[in-house]
Each structure stands twice: as C-alpha cells, then as structure tokens.
Amino acid sequence: MDSSIVLFTVPEKTVEMEKKLKEDGIEIRFYHRNDLVRFMEFLEQTMPSDWVRVERRNLRKIVEGGFHPEQVVLVTKGDDIIGYCQFDGSHFGPFGVSDAYQGRGIGTVLLARTLERMRQEGYHDAWVMWTDDLAAKVYGKFGFKETRRFAMLKKAF
Predict the structure, then answer these.
(1) Comparing C-alpha atoms, which of 128, 63, 61, 57 is closest to residue 94?
(2) Of 147, 42, 36, 148, whose CA–CA distance to 96 is shortest?
(3) What is the mean pLDDT of residues 89-107?
(4) Which residue range forms the structural domain that includes residue 70?
(5) How far, in Å, CA of 123 to CA of 116, rounded?
(6) In the chain, what is the straight-line distance between the N-terminal and C-terminal CA atoms, in Å?
(7) Considering Cα of 16, then 4, then 59, then 138, what sign does the dihedral take?
(8) Cα-trace Rg, the chain
(9) Region class of 89: left (phi > 0), else alpha (psi between -120 and 50), else beta
(10) How many domains does the chain have?
(11) What mean pLDDT is predicted for residues 115-121?
(12) What does DSSP assign to residue 74?
C-alpha cells in the first residue's frame, strides 16, 4: 500500500483523538536513548521476532549515525511503551500497538504523527510492504491504496 504525503497534515479529528489519549496518560513521542531497555522489552514481549531484529539493527545504526531517533515514534503510558512506528526513507513500519491498547485510536494517531514526520523530512510518498485487513483500514484513512498483491503458495504433500 502507498500514498502521497506531499500535502499531508494531521486531520483535526486525529488531533482531538491525540488530546483525549493524552488526558488518559498516553503520549506519542520520538524515541530517546533512555528508552532502549523498555523499548527492547516491549518489542520482545509483543512483536514478531523479525520486527525485533529490524529494530535492533536500527538502534545500532542510531549509534553509528545512519539512523536518527526521530525515525522511531513511540507510544507511552507512564513508563511503559505500548506502541511504535518507524520509517526508513519513504518506507514506514514495522508499526504496532500492544494488544491491550488496540481499538482506542492509538494506531491512527501514531501513523499520522509518523507520516507528518516523514513529510517534514521531505518525503513525497509513504509505503508499506505488507499488511493485514485490519491495518489496511487504518492506512486507508490516510489515502493509502493497495498497489501490489503477493500470494504465498504452499505445496501440499
């Protein structure tokens, strides 16, 4: 799925949603190096192992100067990390919110703030390689369209 973000602005409805989340103690912000241990714990406990591998690589690249903390957007509730999204060039993702916090609009705000940051960095479009139907609905709110479909074939024995 992909979308043009040349004219992207965070919709007012999403800004209001973010204010409500903040009232509930949920904040969307950039990664800080003090988040390292909690971020890795969150990833290892809630995300697929391949996503953990991707983020370990990106966190190492931050130290080397090849990736920047502003490319990782976190969602926190108190000291707990409950969601994140990262981007590398015009590709965003992995992107996820802890199961216990889904259905509250967190993913919508998280994606909007990530797309906003990508546009600020000068990217004209955003894309994600693969998604499921639930996430595709969130992406659709921001103009994302399916541009390619892959099929996984499996030989039955």
Answers:
(1) 128
(2) 42
(3) 92
(4) 2-140
(5) 10
(6) 33
(7) positive
(8) 16
(9) left
(10) 1
(11) 95
(12) E
Residue linked to tokens 């966190």: 59
Domain holding 28: CATH number? 3.40.630.30
What's this model's pTM, rounded to 2 decimal places? 0.87
Report the pLDDT value the prediction gives residue 48, as an integer from 0 to 100. Answer: 81
Measured from the Cβ of residue 121, the count of other Cβ atoms closer than 10 Å reads 13
Decide: helix, strand or coil at residue 86.
strand
Amino acid residing at 144 = F
Is residue 93 in some structural domain?
yes
CA gap 157, 152 in Å, rounded: 16
Q: Return the closest-CA partner of residue 25 out of 75, 80, 98, 77.
A: 77
User: With contact defined as beta carbons under 8 Å apart, do 83 and 26 qualify?
Assistant: no
**How many CB atoms are closer than 10 A to CB 46?**
18
